Amino acid sequence: QQLLKGKNILVMGVANKWSIAWGIAQKLHEAGACLAFTYQGQKSEENIRKLIHGTMPEAPLIPCDVQNDQDIEATFQQVGEKFGMLHGIIHSIAHAKKEELEGCYFDTSREGYLMAQEISAYSLVAVTKYAKPLMTGGGSIVTLTYLGGERVIKNYNVMGVAKAALEASVKYLAVDLGKENIRVNAISAGPIKTLAAKGIKNFSTMLNEFEEKSPMGRLILTEEVGNTALFLCSSLSSGITGENIHVDCGYHILG
Ligand code: 0WD
């Protein structure tokens, strides 16, 4: 069933084949969506080129560092030129200094705090602002978050605080855009071994603990996050906005 036939969706945050954004992109593509990708840095560009080679060689690849407003503006100008109308955005971007993903939260530097907020939370706001004029037929904006935004999770520190800001932004943006039928939601994914996750101290311990404790007794699969993103981009979720859907084998219900 081609749930996303005729839909144009921008995927932001594929770094390599392990990226959650790539897991999502594959599901959107299978559902008939027309995709464009943004990347940061040459390595990611090369990786994406290889990944899309067989299946969607025509997909536009646009450089975009979300710390730069001009990049964001230029991205949506290009998306407008290629697609005309935009129906969806996958925002799968986050970053913090590795040394601040361990130890005590009070040791977070001013610079590190601002950087984590800027890349991981503010970027959703800026992207939404520039995307809105292209989403004239309504649409769906999906971002990725983690339980560390709701609860204290060891070593997640500055990123947890950035995710809390991201989750609050989802709600404010949902109100801003609701009447235009643009929905804004987050997926709170369980831990998945990716490049970004490697920055968190003792990440493999976190994976083991998750597997042991989660109600379903296993880790989450990237394709399960992909399926949820597909649902959120499709009309099946037409009544859902401002929501944070946990795709975590039920881990968040535990005290
Ligand atoms: O366990 C996990 N992996 C979870 C990840 C659990 C729950 C949520 N998430 C979130 C992350 O916090 C992030 O928001 O999912 C999102 C995607 O993360 P990922 O797929 O785990 O990691 P990765 O493949 O590294 O993609 C994140 C990418 C960056 O990768 P690197 O590793 O190069 O920082 O975000 C992009 C970049 O491609 N990124 C930027 N893009 C544009 N401008 C920027 C920037 N300034 N900084 C990072």
UniProtKB/TrEMBL annotation:
Keywords associated with the record: Fatty acid biosynthesis, Fatty acid metabolism, Lipid biosynthesis, Lipid metabolism, NAD, Oxidoreductase
Pfam families linked: adh_short_C2 (PF13561)
Positions annotated as active site in the UniProt record: 146 (proton acceptor), 156 (proton acceptor)
UniProt pathway: Lipid metabolism; fatty acid biosynthesis
Record bears the keyword NAD: yes
Catalytic activity: a 2,3-saturated acyl-[ACP] + NAD(+) = a (2E)-enoyl-[ACP] + NADH + H(+)
GO annotation (BP), single: fatty acid biosynthetic process
CDD domains from the UniProt entry: ENR_SDR
Annotated positions binding NAD(+): 13, 19-20, 40, 65-66, 93, 163, 192-196
GO molecular function (one): enoyl-[acyl-carrier-protein] reductase (NADH) activity
Cited PANTHER family: ENOYL-[ACYL-CARRIER-PROTEIN] REDUCTASE, ENOYL-[ACYL-CARRIER-PROTEIN] REDUCTASE [NADH], CHLOROPLASTIC
Name the record gives this protein: Enoyl-[acyl-carrier-protein] reductase [NADH]
Natural source organism: Geosporobacter ferrireducens
Phylogenetic lineage: Bacteria, Bacillati, Bacillota, Clostridia, Peptostreptococcales
